[in-house]
Amino acid sequence: MKVVLKDGSAIEVKKGISILELANQISSGLARVATAGKVNGEVKDLRFKLEEDCNVEILTFDSCLDGKKAYWHTTSHIMAQAIKRLFGDSIKLAIGPSIDEGFYYDFDVETPFSDEDKLKIEEEMKKIIKEDLPIEKFALSREEAIKFMKEKDEPYKIELIEDLPEDVEISFYKQGDFTDLCAGPHLMSTGKVKAVKIMSSSSAYWRGNENNKSLQRIYGISYPKASQLEEYIHLIEEAKKRDHRKLGKELELFFFDETAPGMAYWLPKGMKILNTLIQFWREEHEKRGYQEFSGPQLNSSVLWKTSGHWDHYKEDMFVLEDVDGNEQALKPMNCPNAIKVFQTKLRSYKDLPLRFNDIDVIHRNEKSGQLNGLFRVRMFRQDDSHNFITEEQVADEIKDIIEIAKYLYGIFGLEFKLTLSTRPDDFMGDIEVWNKAESDLRNVLDEICGKDEYEVNEGDGAFYGPKIDIKMKDCLGREWQMGTVQLDFQLPLRFNLSYIDREGEKKTPILVHRALFGSFERFIGIITEHFAGAFPVWLAPVQVKILPISDAQHEYARELEEKLKKEGLRVELDSRNEKIGYKIREAQLQKVPYMLIVGDKEIETNAVGVRSRTEGDIGAMSQNEFIDKIKTEINTFAR
User: Fold this and answer.
1) H or E segment and range at residue 23
2) Model pTM score
3) What is the rounded distance in angstroms from the CA atom of residue 62 to the CA atom of residue 469?
4) Contact 254, 264 (CB under 8 A)
5) Which of 9, 95, 134, 369 lies deepest, with the highest CB count within 10 Å?
6) Catalytic: 363?
7) What CATH number does domain 66-240 carry, 3.30.980.10, 1.10.1140.10, 3.40.50.2000, 3.40.30.10?
8) Which residue among the candidates 44, 84, 364, 514 is catalytic per the annotation?
9) What is the pLDDT of residues 572-629, one digit of tens each?
């Protein structure tokens, strides 16, 4: 049979060969580090046998997330085995999946795991790894599987088996004295795992339902090298210091309250950052021919039914009735409002591209367990635009949007990559139209990036069209899903949109949905952590702090404050009767870019003593010299 590899080359192999055997045939070195395989795009266990011509990619820990997940899934079983060895059958197993960063396992225990328990578990895991136990896969019938788990007195596993579809294979993995219900994939032995660390524990409801029993969840991580684990732990510690929720409180930027879950209160300093970012966004888009509008917060269900959101997105919307009994919904997105603006008058091909951008507040009914500071909220401002274009303008419009993204992210020193997300299972519209839309986006990405420089995320498009997702990395190497560019052939048809073409005929425009920051709230959360709260001077809520040494300099300091404010600078005067060293330390903790020390000597020379957040004491400057310096940094978006 023929197998086509990731690089496009094809090899002849014996029918029934396993993925691991195939890896060995390619290279013994590849086989040593293989964690799983992808067969025709589906992740499979290394034990999986190839029975017909297919495309195969050998996955490793370093090749992709799916490769890591097989590694981490195996480690979750090692942890469960260690806990069973240490605490016996009184502990019942629930589920133990891999996640995007490591793994967890849920256990039904009488008392929560202590820090001492977790250290013991970690040591036992290392013993199991050292034993290098072979991991064997086997399958049982539904009846046999239930009987097997009843004998082991594992009620949660029995419930899982009973809920499985009738035709699904019920598989188990065995390693030494431990066997677990699992679909895999897994490594070939416990010894393939090298470096492990238990990270934390928490409570978690069985199956995420608060009406079910509360279990104990233990999170862990593992790596092929100890150095990789050490680097990860360092990054985690650094991330804790940079946590935007912690910094938001310390720097008086924003807070959350239980009376409004997932909805931020912006404090005055936080509003300075938000408004500065919005103004920057507005100016850059106005230069490029975008027109800002604003629409209602509340729309009739009629609008959402026409757009298709009612069928595809209703559970994530806040729905209510008005006094007349009509169904309404707080808008979860802006596209139908932009369409209404397009419909206000007859449009010509000469009007296109027509780009309507807005920053209206939108609401999404996120589950409380998914809320996460500014990263996942229920109320936010999307940096939206909806661009109406002709078919001939697709390539140029997408290129222009990517160029804007490059410029905006470059201002913050952020790198990004592009991902093409294709047709989902619940897609709306004609499949031929979808194929054309996906082809258009591929062609643009091939031209902008090259065929191997972007990823394809099959089945992750919006229900109305394929999209290009923008993923960026921060200074800690963490990847974030940021903006998106979505090509939509469906909504213009559903709303009967048209423009008059060159021949005087009505034609349907194409709609491009695009957001670049994603949302202002989320973006501020990300850059707060990226800069560790030390925002560039142009974005800092307080750009200058004036620190008089004693009361004798207060009048000079107040005059200086007024002068700097007239120059458009954001200034605070610290006139407290405190020692200058204390004032400097406080300004440093508040991460103010510049401190101006004012004493008798500065008054005599009409100067200021300049202290930088990053460089320390710079020395004396005239007032105008300092103003020129800081305004140059602001105007050039210096970081």
Assistant:
1) helix 19-26
2) 0.79
3) 22
4) yes
5) 95
6) no
7) 3.30.980.10
8) 364
9) 999 999 999 999 999 999 999 999 999 999 999 999 999 999 999 999 999 999 999 9
